[in-house]
Amino acid sequence: MQGMSERQYAAHVGLSRGAIQKAKDTGRLVQYVDGSIDAAASDARRAAMTDPAKQRSEPRNARSPAPKLKPVPDTELSAVGDTLRENGLAAPITGGGTTFLQAKTANEVLKAQETALLEAGEWRATATAADPGTVGYHLSALYSPIGWLSWERIVRAWEAAQGSDEAIRAFKNTILGETWVETGEAPDWSRLYDRREAWKPGIVPAGGLFLTAGADVQKDRIEVDVWAWGRGGTSWLVDHIVIDGGPDHQDAWAELTKLLDRTWAHQNGAQLRLAKLAIDTGYEAPAVYAWSRRQGVAQVAPVKGVEGFNRSSPVSGPTYVDVTDAGKRLRRGARLWTVAVSTFKAETYRHLALPRPTKEELAEGATFPPGTVHLPDWVESEWLKQLVGEELVTVRTKRGFARLEWQKLRERNEALDCRVYARAAAWIVGADRWSEARRVDLEAQVEGDSKEDGVMTPVLPDPSVQCAVRHSDARCHQVT
Fold it and tell me: What's this model's pTM, rounded to 2 decimal places?
């Protein structure tokens, strides 16, 4: 080819390919015998035939510098490279500043070859069946033919699933065709210690929308952890409180009652109360039932932990339990919630293991992934060791069947228990089922958008979390 193609000349002059074709049809371009374009002669002819008032002063692509394209992280690029190499294609080199535009181009090339790749594929057995007449197949939706389920839709489904364990499980089951395996390896407490962030005790960082607490009753004390919850299950430890005196000390119950009326300052200026406090009934249940009944159902939820996983409904109930008040048995006295603690323990460990952006990436606008557990720099190593004080292991029953079981790695694990109860409290108030409109409404209240003349009127979307947000001058009434 002697000259330029239409595409090359369009890039040369900064016009679309359609405009170049139109210019050819009107005789404004000079072509060689083979149909290619004589660039120099065509530039001169176009200049002579174009009205100066309508002529560009400079090529379109010279008007502004090319935008700075965001590089693809090496981890994602390596994963794409593995896929390309498996299909006999050249993989991009990591660390070379590959951009998302280049990655998208590579994806388009791979898609163009996908049909041929699928036709050349073959089934390979990865296991020997005990019954030769029974054959099982495993195939990911990533192998969908062109026109079925595109990679773009799969990526969008994966991004939409972030922050919801149930959605991620459904994605792996129905899209990737993989089984869901619970992971419960205890994170390294020293790594959590190094990742702590700076904020003062009792302060709710930006992003927190409402507060819940988990209370663990011990023989000589009551330990309470207050957690703030935001979008996507992101959480922040706001306060750690130890109340001296066990369940047989009325002063301890009085101090716990005070927490229900206490407020915690939000970074944006709002004052937040507890939307729900979940208290364990595993130790001295009658005393816990009696106190819970006196407080009502608006802010207090007595809970009972049971082993096992239940993702569709990790919290069930409530059911009425009898309580004793001054020697008199009261029927339908307290409402007890049952919590599948294994579900929330596994979720906590997964969220603790989420990758975190570096300081440089945060400065460039990167954000923490949904579900990130933010821990303050005022928590001590003992608390962190308690948070990761259990591990999920596989044990064999007497009949030889395998089952998953949480086992303690150390004697004390109150931090993990309080975390599980606080998470259950968030589930009870409905946070896992809130609509987008409800979350936006909470954000508006926390940011002070509902204030008039300096007074914010709390209008929470769910009756069970009424009174969770208020400013100092607001009037808030519990709903019982």
Answer: 0.60
